[in-house]
Structure formats: structure tokens, C-alpha cells
Amino acid sequence: MVISLVLIVVPTMLGVLAMLVVRRFAPRGGFLSGMESADGIFSAAGAALAVLLAFVIFTVFESYENARTAAGQEAVATQQMYSTSGFFPDSADALRGEIVCYSRSVINDEWPDMSNGKESAQVQGWVNQLDSTIQQTQIRGNGQGAALENWLSLSQDRLDARRTRLAEGRPFVPAFVWFVLILIVLLVVAFQCLFADPAATAFGQAIAMTAMTATLVAALVLIWVLDRPFNDRGAQIAPSRMSAALAVMTHVPTLPATLPCDATGKAG
To answer: Is 67:230 a contact under the CB 8 Å cutoff?
Structure first.
């Protein structure tokens, strides 16, 4: 959060400083006083930049929302799998323990890894263990057969949600797009400096530059924040839904007395 604010304030101050420096050397009326089309060029460049920023912000926000939704869907599917495990008496304790360990691993191991664009081998280990346990479970009667179908459906939902969460946790905006955005912002700010006029008040021109630079830089920082939804940049998605599901699972009478992992989800 602090870094995000600094990334807005510092470039804005530099933009204002550049305007004031250029103003000291500018002729009366500014460098573009004799160029009638200057205002039109500036307006066209500003409009193009605004459209581009709006499009990228919308796209990145959609990716951010997908990540948040996937995290919630994963938590719901995991909790429902815990409840469904009761239909398999022979493997109920093993399945419940592995589901709890999966949840703990997601919260304590995979969530920090996602800030670096990585996934957790520990979580994948519990995914594999759950698959192995359910495959070894003996299915008796139509009731357990229906429960197995429901389990497999929930497992697929959890898997799809995790894949989406991991995918959206990686940078969405390509490096070349960042280059283009930053280049255009710099060009627009530089163009604004050419309107510096020593005949106008320094305060008024500083306010105008502050408003424009802060708006453009804030848009870039917003994209930077939303582009990595699991990083602590000011809008971090926390594992609150999975934590809530884990709290429910660990405070019910069906919780096994012994779990195959420690409090962080590490097998033990």
C-alpha cells in the first residue's frame, strides 16, 4: 500500500518540478504559442491515452475479479468435499484429514508462493493423496455410487478453481504493453511541459500539472496493483474464504483426532 502511494506521489512531484523548470526558460506564451494546432494534438494524444488506459484497466480488473471468484469457489468446493466424505465410512477420517491438510497448505504455503508467480508442491501433494485415497475406497451400493459422483464433481470444481487462481496470480499485462503505456504517459507529460508560460501564475500551472500527472500515474499504478492480485500492493486477495472454510471443518465433531499434517499443512 505504501509503495503504491509512493509510486503516485513521487512521479507527480517530478512532473510538477519539470513544469516549473521549463517555465523558467520558456518564452511568454510558452513554446507552442505560435502553433495553432498544439491544443488539438494534445487533446488527441490525451484522448488516445485515456482510451488505452481504460481498456487495460477494465481487462486487468476482470482478471482480478476472476482470481477472487476462483478463490471463493475453491473454498466452497473444499468444504463440500469434507461433508461428502462422510458417505465413505471406510475412508472418511483419511479423506477429512487430507482435506484439512490441503486447506492449511493452500493458506500457509501456496498463498505466499503465488506472490512470486509459483504454485505449491505441498498443495499438489495433498491433491494427489486425495485422489489416491478416493480411488482405493470401496464403493458399496447405489448411495455411495451417487456420493462418489458428487465427490468427483466437487473435486473437479476445486481443481478448476485452483487452476484459475494460479493462472490469474501471474502477471497479466505483457512487458511490451507496459512499455507502450509508460512511453505514452511520458510523452503526454512532456507535451504538457511545453505549455509552460512564465506569464501565467506558477501555482496555477503547478496545480494543472499535478492534476494531470497524478491522474495518469494513478492509472498506471492501479494496473500494476490489479495485475498481481495476490501481492501486497494495496488490493491483495487474502485467503479469507479458505480460512473460513477451514474454521468450519476444524470445529465440527467429525474432525479426526489425528491429522496427517501440522498446523501449516506440512505432512508429518
So the answer is: yes
pLDDT in tens, 162-217: 999 999 988 889 999 999 999 999 998 988 888 888 888 888 888 988 999 999 99
Q: Is residue 172 part of a domain?
A: yes
Domain assignment of residue 245, given as a range: 2-27+38-249
Count how many domains the chain has.
1
Alpha-carbon span 67 to 70, nearest angstrom: 5
What gap in Å lies between CA 84 and CA 193, rounded to an integer? 65
pTM: 0.85
CA distance 159 to 81: 12
If DSSP codes are grouped into helix, strand and coil, which group holds residue 261?
strand
Residue 260 inside a domain? The answer is no
For 236, phi then psi, to 5°, come to -65, 135
Q: Is residue 266 part of a domain?
A: no
